[in-house]
Specification:
153 residues; alpha+beta; three-stranded antiparallel β-sheet; three-stranded mixed β-sheet; 6 strands; 21% strand; elongated; RNR_NrdR-like; ATP binding
Length: 153
């Protein structure tokens, strides 16, 4: 690590500790040339993940978009905000665990539907109706029939 005062490249670490949010390490260093002290922060480099939309556009992954969609689906349902945030966090974790820089929006949509199905049937149907773009009432009824038959099993 180069000293910010004299540009000497040899320093020693005096103290290391995690930051309050545990996202980086704070290191207190001393230059072996000028003996001045300074602080550095070490952080894991995030690999940006891009979502590939149906039309081929790419945009950065944004967990807030999942939260907004799920919140709309869960409107007036007995589901706590903490459950919705937990769902969004789990999906974000799954997306980053793919270790791919590009993820199709369809994969994210399917993950959301799977988690919503476990959480609340009505929220699931609401989300599915928008996500799958039901063309008519028959398509909507088919999805409801599938859901009912799964619940019987």
């Amino acid at each position: 690590m180069k000293c910010p005062f004299c540009n000497h490249v040899e320093t020693k670490v005096l103290d290391s500790r995690p930051t309050e949010d545990n996202t980086s390490i704070r290191r207190r260093r001393e230059c072996l040339n000028c003996n001045r002290r300074f602080t550095t922060y070490e952080k894991v480099e995030d690999i940006p993940v891009y979502v590939v939309k149906k039309d081929g556009r790419r945009e950065p992954f944004d967990k807030r978009k999942i939260l907004i969609g799920v919140l709309k689906s869960c409107e007036k349902r007995p589901i706590s905000i903490s459950k919705i945030e937990e769902l969004a966090n789990e999906i974000e974790k799954q997306v980053y665990n793919t270790m791919r820089q590009e993820v199709e929006s369809s994969l994210i949509g399917e993950l959301v539907m799977k988690k919503l199905k476990e959480l609340d049937d009505v929220a699931y149907v609401r989300f599915a109706s928008v996500y799958r773009q039901f063309k008519d009432i028959n398509t909507f009824l088919e999805e409801l029939q599938k859901l009912l038959s799964e619940n019987k099993d």
